[in-house]
Amino acid sequence: MPKINPGRLLSDLRRFAQFGAYRTGVHRPTYSKEDMDSRRWLAQQYEAVGLQAHIDGVGNVFGMPHSERRSLLIGSHAESQNHAGWLDGALGVIYGLEIARAFAETPDCFGLPIAPVAWADEESHYIPLLGSRSFVGDIEEAEIDRAVNVDHGLPLRDALREAGLASVPRSLVEPGRHVGYLEAHIEQGDALEASRKRIGVVTSIVGIWQYSIVFYGIQNHAGTTRMAIRKDAGVAAATLTMAIAERFPEVAGPRSVWTTGRITLEPGARNIIPGKAEMLFQFRDSEMPVLERLDAVLGELVEETAIKTGCRADIERTGTGKPWHMDPAFQAAIETAAALHAPGAYVRMPSGASHDAQVVGRKLRSAMLFVPSIGGISHHWTENTNDADLVLGCQVLADAAETILRGEST
Amino acid sequence: MPKINPGRLLSDLRRFAQFGAYRTGVHRPTYSKEDMDSRRWLAQQYEAVGLQAHIDGVGNVFGMPHSERRSLLIGSHAESQNHAGWLDGALGVIYGLEIARAFAETPDCFGLPIAPVAWADEESHYIPLLGSRSFVGDIEEAEIDRAVNVDHGLPLRDALREAGLASVPRSLVEPGRHVGYLEAHIEQGDALEASRKRIGVVTSIVGIWQYSIVFYGIQNHAGTTRMAIRKDAGVAAATLTMAIAERFPEVAGPRSVWTTGRITLEPGARNIIPGKAEMLFQFRDSEMPVLERLDAVLGELVEETAIKTGCRADIERTGTGKPWHMDPAFQAAIETAAALHAPGAYVRMPSGASHDAQVVGRKLRSAMLFVPSIGGISHHWTENTNDADLVLGCQVLADAAETILRGEST
């Protein structure tokens, strides 16, 4: 049985957090100097375990075993959100490294090839899930040509050139080469903590359906236009927000979530009745019928709001991600390992966030493990997890990896 | 009786609209080249009527009669909103010029001194009602030092230097020198048109109470944070907007208006639950007790919303303008003239918009006349008024001016 080294694991996690250290978290945007330094450091560590390391044309870092046998990819993404936490992504990346080491040090695991991986730009600085999508062949060159940084607007092509990746080929999945993919991640919610569990066995990753909803009213003077004749697009947006808050709970699933992340009123002046209101809205669920039901109800509510407020409404679906179910046998392997190391302290649960596993899962059998987030906090520099949980998660994933690779070899 | 010249009036209005012509409207921001050209043109016209013209240190243009008797100021503001209408401000300015000419041409009006005036920056490119506030002594040098342009952020001091006004003194009201102030303006609403009236006799100018209302929720991941534990600041803003829409009609006056002009959610990302929501809110009424009642109810609703949504709320009053009642004798003079020239087609009404008359009114007896806005449209380049109404309004104001000045002389 592979035995991970808790001290080395924690020390590497802390070392990795020095790349772009920010308060108690990190600021390591994709292709920044800190991000590329962290990727080169990873490649060195992979080499030191006896793996063949390379950074591909979008910055994915692979550590490939010198083995004829099919290997198990283990990793996550290396970059961070802006001024965010030290574990989001990094946890799964360093688990991959530590498990590769543990296997290399365990004589009877010698022939079981672990391939650690660090994906690029899961966090959408340029293109959401860019690295894993590139790996499964889901990114055209034209999409890379068009992409710009969401914060400073500079082209992705320039960033890749700056990072020294302009003429490096992108690595594509070869299904015959890999058994599958395992990813560990912090939960980023409070479900584990609230139920006093320490390991989440991810059953599925939610589908995210995104919308841009625009109401067109009549822009006019806020002093001289009588209330009776107003068509206020901002009031329409508020009306819809409240209608959603009232109706969605009646038709949603038990874990459905929905969010209006942005409301923009135009022209946005104190003394002008808004003529236009745009809402960025999304909902998530792990079941397709629930997503379709929410979509239908949203359409009805937008129409009702338009009639009620006298505003014209446009609704555009900007994303309809399918939920993705994790591989049942991989889930079972994680669950068995969790039952051994944390009896009674694990639970099956869907993931409310996107992860590279949902992309890789399209081509390779995949599964995920969650460790708790203290206070449910993530995407913030105060994000954290207890050391004991960090260690436990890695050991459980290592055991699961062994089970999967042994199953493969028989 | 002074007889205005309709052809000359319309021709001057159209000439004035060439300064910064934009589609069928104008773009003539305060202290822009077009604005300063228009002010210099006005000064020339004032001189041509035999008045002593000068442009003061904030750009106000005065045409002062060579007379020992107290004169009647007549005017409005010369600049426009950005890419807006040709009559907003310009109407009252050109009325002042035409009435000065009509009096100069009418032998028995000879001794009745008309002082046309064009105020600067009523439209808030730098400081709302800057010109008239400067005239009544309500602007300190420090406020001018601090002010910047709302669009491009350049300092007011630089704009004044550029306009050649840096070392020109600001003219201050000398109450013994003026009988009072008359201002004509387009209505900027549809009340006249809807009731088929052609002249509005303004009874009062509303007080505008402005608020910045901020809700603080908990910013978190839009996928992993369960609905049950969310504190969504955006939902709080929508809740308040709807609560206002429901409760305000019960306590408002018949002409009260209220508007949420802007809602800003932070961080404003699709996939993050807003941790902060800021609303710019205002209401207007011409009666102080109504304003105070709305203020009290708003405070209650903000508190109720905070309790209901679990968000903390801050409410700040950023403006509490007093409503201003027009001089009764001046109103009567306008009404009598309207009854003569437009029998049955005039009405007393409050002004829902701010005007220089509410500022000048603090020091001099003041009154206002409205002409209809086609479709109630203003602050837009399609703003317009029928020629017949443009002419009528000027004749009514001229008659009212005569009545006021004759009353003064007896």
Automatic annotation (TrEMBL), chains A, B:
Cofactor note (record): Binds 2 Zn(2+) ions per subunit.
KW Metal-binding (keyword) present: yes
Residues holding Zn(2+) 1: 77, 88, 185
A Pfam family this chain is assigned to: Peptidase_M20
A GO molecular-function annotation: metal ion binding
InterPro entries recorded: Amidase_Cbmase, Bact_exopeptidase_dim_dom, Peptidase_M20
Keyword Oxidoreductase in annotation: no
Cofactor: Mn(2+); Zn(2+)
Alphabetical keyword list: Hydrolase, Manganese, Metal-binding, Zinc
UniProt-annotated binding residues for Zn(2+) 2: 88, 123, 379
Source taxon at top rank: Bacteria
Gene3D superfamilies recorded: 3.30.70.360, Zn peptidases (3.40.630.10)
Subunit structure: Homodimer.
Family: Belongs to the peptidase M20 family.
Protein's name in the database: Zn-dependent hydrolase
High-level lineage: Bacteria, Pseudomonadati, Pseudomonadota, Alphaproteobacteria, Hyphomicrobiales
